[in-house]
Design goal:
Blueprint (H helix, E strand, L loop, with lengths): L1 H20 L3 H12 L3 H24 L1 H5 L8 H17 L8 H5 L7 H30 L8 H24 L1 H12 L1 H4 L1 H15 L8 H28 L1 H6 L7 H14 L11 H14 L9 H30 L5 H20 L6
Length: 369
């Protein structure tokens, strides 16, 4: 049942975003012309720099997890951690409705960490990332505010900051008073009254997951994790800016100014906020739409007008960025599966973990980690 709901949500997101970004015949004709303007020999240095930044991003995003696992008494060597993370990142991209988030915690069970506790570290990772990005988006949007700014801009910034700020407050309360916090949350859901057995199973799982929050007490590992994260997001934003520089001939054709570094970082931030929603399969359409929305704040609202030259130029740029990201994560995931540290059986078992947990909640019988 849970899988069916996730698939329906994912299909709905796919339909929505494909409706928003699917190019009509005129746009496709202009896209073909715009791509033909690219001189790939001239673009090669920008692509090389983009790939170098992708490597930096991938290494930082993978290895920083050790600093979240350290308070649990776990240290994974760099090779296995890169393999596990690469397969997990590929799963996040491929599986619908954020189900891929369960893969990395599931793969850690072979290394003596319960999937629930490992999932707690992933929750910390997502909340800290979200808070960093929402702070940056808020600052960038705040600097752009004015009578001509779109009405959605500041409410989006405040909403993102509020959501991740509230999540951080929950982490702090859960660390300080784990049992009281979990029981309060369950009481709000009315689940203890509706189904005490299921509520008991969920309570046990949540309390185990809270073990993964221990890094917030470990100042050294938390500081190192934040440094890794800042480098990761810095490389991410610079990668977008470098690729935009490579698309200079296309932007010139559409009479668009170059995308600034601040514009690249703000666009990256809006995409990062947008894809925290339940994702369409492969984030198709969702990625491009949020990218165009972010770029429109810096290059003008014309980039949102379908069939216009600015729209086509930014759509080509956003699609190229998306395709390069997809190729990268699929390639890294395939390499991870080719190593001795992760197998297809491990991946299937890790992916099946949420379904097993859901079944345990129905029956009231916990599933062993």
């Amino acid at each position: 049942m849970r899988l069916a709901i996730n698939l329906v949500i994912s299909a709905a997101m796919l339909a929505l975003f494909m409706w928003l970004v699917w190019p009509d015949p005129l746009t496709r004709e202009k896209l073909s012309f715009a791509i033909g303007l690219l001189d790939f020999a001239q673009m090669a240095p920008y692509l090389a720099a983009y790939v170098v930044l992708l490597v930096i991003m991938h290494v930082c995003r993978s290895l920083r997890w050790n600093n979240l696992l350290a308070p649990l008494g776990i240290h994974v060597p760099a090779g296995p951690l890169l393999a596990i993370s690469s397969v997990g990142f590929m799963a996040i991209l491929a599986l619908p409705a954020r189900l891929g988030e369960f893969v990395r915690p599931g793969l850690m069970r072979k290394r003596g960490v319960s999937a629930s506790a490992a999932l707690g570290t992933v929750a910390v990772e997502r909340i800290v990332d979200g808070l960093l990005i929402s702070l940056f988006v808020f600052g960038a949007f705040f600097s752009l505010r004015g009578p001509d700014s779109p009405g959605w801009m500041m409410p989006t910034a405040y909403a993102a900051l509020g959501v991740f700020g509230a999540a951080l407050i929950f982490l702090i309360f859960a660390m300080r008073w784990p049992v009281k916090t979990v029981r309060f949350g369950l009481a709000l859901s009315l689940l203890p009254r509706l189904s005490p057995r299921i509520a008991g199973v969920i309570e046990a799982k949540l309390l185990d997951m809270i073990r993964g929050f221990d890094v917030l007490r470990d100042k050294k590992n938390l500081s190192i994790f934040l440094v890794w994260s800042l480098v990761y997001w810095g490389a991410n934003g610079l990668g977008l800016w470098v690729l935009a520089r490579g698309f200079g001939p296309v932007f010139d054709w559409a009479h668009l100014p170059p995308l600034t570094v601040l514009g690249a970082f703000a666009s990256m931030g809006l995409v990062a906020v947008g894809i925290t929603l339940p994702n369409s399969p492969g984030m198709v359409g969702q990625f491009q739409w949020f990218m165009q929305l972010g770029v429109s704040l810096y290059l003008g609202a014309s980039v949102l007008v379908k069939d216009s030259d600015p729209y086509v130029a930014v759509y080509a740029f956003a699609s190229a960025h998306y395709v390069l990201q997809v190729i990268w994560y699929i390639a890294m995931g395939a390499i991870g599966l080719a190593t001795p540290w992760v197998s297809f059986h491990d991946l299937w078992t890790a992916r099946a973990k949420p379904a097993a947990d859901a079944e345990s909640q129905k029956t009231g019988e916990p599933v062993a980690d």
